[in-house]
Amino acid sequence: MKPTVTDEVFDRVYETILRRDASLDGRYYVGIVSTGIFCRPSCRSRTPKPENVRVYESIEEARQAGFRACKRCRPETPGKEGPDAAMASAVTDLIRKHYAENLTLGDLAARLNVSPFHLQRVYKKTTGSTPAQWLLQTRLEEAKRQLADPSRSVTDIAAAVGFRSASHFSYAFRKAVGCPPNDYRGNNRPVSAAEEENKA
Asked: Where are the transmembrane segments (predicted)?
């Protein structure tokens, strides 16, 4: 699995694979180690075992990892909603690239030359979440990754992932994850070799 994709995201994507759910199509791409292809999460091909699944955030990443596009679900083409799916995918890509900035619905709409109302409606209909919800999730997933580095302070991480203050970050993190950032860091701290030996 791609290192920057957390176990939580992997489980969410794999659940959509099991359900043949198209809600994450265009937001994640699934590489199948046993076949060498990458698909939409909703692909109707045989369900892969979880150990054979790799999750990528873009077609480019899947290709760079050596996977080729599935001829059945055609992940490179817009989904069943056509232009709407393409717009939703463009919004998702913008958020991935600019999540650390002070990004608003108006900013996203201006970059795509559409109205904020239209963008919000299309994105919600296509993905099941709003751009703001996806932006928050993206920031929190990146924060989880950065919390693994003990040299980074919570304040630095908050700023790096786009929160206006450490207190706002801590509130949002606790509400979404169920614990403060420092507690999450402590509970997910890698165990050193010395600690492993002491346990033994």
From this structure: none
The answer to whether 40 and 75 have CB atoms below 8 angstroms apart is yes
139 vs 27, 63, 149, 163, 164, CA distance in Å?
Answer: 15, 25, 16, 8, 12
Mean pLDDT, the chain cut into blocks of 10 residues (200 residues total): 64 86 79 93 88 88 91 75 72 92 93 89 86 94 93 95 95 94 84 50
**This model's pTM is above 0.70:** no
Please provide residue 12's backbone torsions phi and psi, each rounded to the nearest 5 degrees: -65, -45
3-class secondary structure, 127: helix
Cα torsion 98, 85, 78, 3 to 10°: value is 40
Q: Which domain holds residue 104?
A: 78-190
Residues 6+ apart with CB under 8 A from 178: none
State whether 47 and 84 are in the same domain: no
* Residues carrying an active site annotation: 39
3-state secondary structure of 29: strand
Cα of 90 vs its chain's centroid, Å = 14
For residue 124, is it within any domain?
Answer: yes
**Are residues 62 and 127 located together in one domain of the fold?**
no
